[in-house]
């Protein structure tokens, strides 16, 4: 474990020194994500001018939800996004060999090697918005609930990573991941709205097999709902189950991988 | 640039796009279905929770029709914004070959852009036809031949305008090592201010008034409102005039940035 932690620190060092070489991109990214936050907040602000609730949540609760969306996005962009973007390219060009011959878990190495230092500032902005949304909430939330919420948000980030990877793993057999990537991005929109708006089989689907509604809505539920046990259990079960599926597919995928001729 | 050359370049680009058929339909269908699903559930919840049957002048059916058209039209307006792009030519040194061609670079790239749009036009036709057959009409709205013509003219202007907006951002590649984030920024801004996220009538009045003079409204809201007959002819003309003025301004900005960048282009890529 310590070896992995030390290795990750090296990833961080390399990533920050690389980001400093491309300073213009660094500032463009900050600008882009700041605008994303502003546009998303404007969306909720305008919608709540016409309705007191959305999916059962009032404006104050929706702001906390939106802040959760920003934090999730910033963490995903910082930790995983670059790595997952290149994964299909590595498979098709045979560059995955580089990751497979290292004496560490190939999945760990591939998923976390490139820390997006240029998204790190956005992570700080997202945290600031979350703190603001929580402190301006008109009722007391309680330390335990907030701690649970933060823990589940992190679990949601991990679930998002697992889902993203699951959509890319078929590249071992299909060789072209563009459609899969677009499918993930298309479905990813479903996690950016409160799960309370979904009903029927779509809701069941989005909280089980394609758990996009779990990623941010369920942590937010843990903050506001009276009953949180089932929320936590469902998140843990679905995340654990899907991570198991990912490990299996990764193993099968590596067997199908034929290096440069893949 | 001769029209014949323009059509030839567009035709090559179109055939290239059509060759990846599976991706082409997956991307189109999943994106469309996911966006429409979100819109459907979101507005079902909002109409129920607000207790209103009409929000911003839209009942639920019309609101849904608005989303159907704004989703498919935005594909026509944006086209292949991240592909066949100018910045890639600059980064990889591919611009060299265009510089020796006896044709305008902007014209050639726009021809590629239009060629890449043909598959999207096929998809748009398919989705709209499917929607109209499945639902039996356009909500409570009546689509007239005049509305269709106004919509078509708006879409042509909107496509040119979006290209003119993104061109200077692409050309920033002469100085910046990555312009992708600038293009995404344009996407975010145009989504909100162009009526891609919701009808612009939902904005508070002061924002609506300010937005009338910005180029974004011409992109998505104007074609849909024209098609659905939710805008008077005079208001449509005003929207088109604002869009045209912005098109001229942005084309000049693009040209100036392009000229400036060309002076320091080394031709070896980055």
Description:
The complex is a heterodimer of chains A (262) and B (270). With 262 residues, chain A is mainly α. Chain A has helices at residues 2-21, 23-47, 59-93, 97-100, 106-112, 120-135, 143-168, 171-174, 178-188, 200-206, 212-215, 217-224, 229-256. The longest helix of chain A is centred in the first third of the chain and has 35 residues, at 59-93. The mean pLDDT of chain A is 89. Chain B is an all-alpha fold and 270 residues long. In chain B, 73% of the residues lie in helices and 1% in strands. Chain B contains 13 helices and 2 strands, in the order ααββααααααααααα. Chain B has a two-stranded antiparallel ribbon with strand order 1-2. In chain B, helix 8 packs antiparallel against helix 9 and helix 8 packs parallel to helix 13. Classes of the chains: A mainly alpha (262), B mainly alpha (270).
Structural class of chain B: mainly alpha
In round numbers, the mean pLDDT of chain A is: 89
Q: Please give the domain count of chain A.
A: 1
Count of spatially separate domains of chain B: 1
Strands side by side in the biggest sheet of chain B = 1-2
N-to-C span of chain A: 32 Å
Number of helices of chain B: 13
Strand segment count of chain B: 2
Largest sheet of chain B: 2 strands, antiparallel
Assign an overall shape of chain A: globular
Could you name the key traits of this structure?
heterodimer, A: 262 residues, mainly alpha, 13 helices, globular, B: 270 residues
Topology:
The complex is a heterodimer of chains A (262) and B (270).
Chain A: H1 2-21, H2 23-47, H3 59-93, H4 97-100, H5 106-112, H6 120-135, H7 143-168, H8 171-174, H9 178-188, H10 200-206, H11 212-215, H12 217-224, H13 229-256
Helix pairs in contact in A: 2-3, 2-6, 3-6, 3-7, 3-12, 7-9, 7-12, 7-13, 12-13
Chain B: H1 3-18, H2 21-50, E1 54-55, E2 58-59, H3 60-78, H4 86-92, H5 95-100, H6 105-115, H7 118-135, H8 145-171, H9 180-193, H10 205-211, H11 216-219, H12 221-227, H13 233-263
Helix pairs in contact in B: 1-6, 2-3, 3-7, 3-8, 3-12, 8-9, 8-12, 8-13
